[in-house]
Amino acid sequence: MRMLLVPMALASLAPSSAFAVDYLSAEQARRLMFPEADSFEPRAITLDAGQLQALSASGVPARSAHWTLQVARHAGTALGYVVIDAVIGKFELITYAVGLDLDGGVRQLEVLSYRESHGHEVRLPAWRRQFVGKNAASPLRVGDDIANISGATLSCQHVTDGVRRIVAVVDLARRSGALG
Amino acid sequence: MKRPALSLAAALAVSQFVPALAHAQSTPTLEELARKVDQLSAELAAVKAQLQQQKTAAATPLPAGSAPAAATAAAPAPAPASSEPATVLTSYGEINYNRPKHSADAQADVRRFVLGYQHRFDDKTQVVTELEVEHGVASASDSGEVEVEQAYIEHQLAPSHALRAGLFLMPVGLLNENHEPTAFYGVERNFVETAIIPTTWREGGLQYVGNFDNGLTAQAGLTTSFDLTKWDAASTEGAESPLASVHQEMSLAKGHDIAVFGAANWRGIPGLLLGGSLFTGNATQGQPGFASARITLWDLHARWTPQRWDLSALYAQGRSSNTAALNAPPVGNPTLIPERFDGWYVQSAYTLWTDGDRALSPFARLERFNTGRRYADLGPGLTPDALPTERVVTVGVNYKLNANVVIKADLQRFKLVGDNNRFDLGLGWSF
Fold first, then answer.
1. Where are the domains of chain B?
2. Given A27, A65, A68, which is nearest B65 (Cβ)?
3. I need a labelling partner for B98 at 20 to 30 A (CA). Which of A48, A136, B49, B234 fits?
4. pLDDT tens string B108-121
5. Contact A102/B at CB under 8 A
6. Predicted ipTM?
């Protein structure tokens, strides 16, 4: 499975791809997820070797030690986190944003851009709503707690795998105190 | 592009380790000092690379509405914007082994080998192609074929609306547009979507595709049609698949008759797909000596995938009009044009075992289909009898080695022609 990490800062600065059907900008997505936030603080996370091993052991290939998320704040109080990521759907990149509550549970999933000829259905609100409330203890697997979309199987699997990875990374960062 | 980030990680890991060394040995040797200098050099190189990346990011034009605060964020990894390829190579293939009741007829075949590419010209326009070789070798003395399976331009009118023009797969049934071996159960494609719907069925023309937030995907367009004037009444090909024997595949296709089609698929509830399609078009292409006749094909289909189950059902029916006039000249031949042909199947699969991307899914499928359900009246003694309905039960297993490679095995039992009973083994891939 081919995947690429989109750092928050670059995703905010430029269109997520030279070739993309953009539905939402990163700014629009984080405002949608945390409408009450008055600021978003960029936070870089670097997983150490032990954390990377812990991820792999739990069946989540880590892909990168370096992650950037945004801490949503209101009047200085943290509300949750936003992570922007990209995965390959069937042939091309899908850029998506995951909003997480302070306890690490998924608050919202938004598809920012989708490029392929088929499989647009991962954008459907009903499919994305399945992720709400999922956390590091959830299976987060298509065919288990996430229903597939017929005709968009690979897009569903790869976005689900991506969300599972993000939930696990944020969970590790929370537990290590990196999000203090 | 990833090297700076990796070396930074290595340098940071090493730098955390260095103080511990210093505590363990108060007087470092020359060798240790040299190593530390190397480590510091590596750190410095990594930091320089990171700074360069940040400068590049800062130089990127700021689109309207971007958050200025984000410009200060750390960005240790590269963005895909500059590296995402405009051209993607695609492929799928099927290598099958069929062992029927009479083992002398057993056969191994490179059923399909397909190469394709998708290329983006700009953010709204792409070309999608597939070139297929069937049966391993295509030559004057071999039965293989080389076919352009898809070749169309897709242009995005709006984020959820697109137009396609060229040679495209018809949005019919469950299999026609998603026909890669990793997408269906069983070594061979099901009979209903082979004998009634001539998968892989493509036509040339113009197609609109709309994706709506309520879960509806609507497709409609104008295309080339079938060519009933090439019906071969002396061959049995028309009895195996009436439409496959008269499809044109945009190979010097007669273009007198323009067909219209529409399809609606609803996926508003996760795991559920309900859909249907309709195609209708004249099919004698204004050829002299042939009465005008229309071919209509429609289908209804459903697929439900609750947890580990994968349940699907499909009914398809085809009709030809004015077949009495077309069948009169060749009357007495074994295969006349049917007025109606149809079929249905139900299928159930269950993912019994998974380990990462690996998955073992047994399945069972029941199909009933009839390629000559009814013939137009040609008069006593001349009207062909309706063909008997074939019933096929398929039981087997798909083993996915990963998301792209599948190994399949199944047993097929035919009610009508027991000699067709067979064991199938298949290897397939798709990427």
1. 2-59, 87-430
2. A27
3. B234
4. 999 999 999 999 99
5. no
6. 0.79
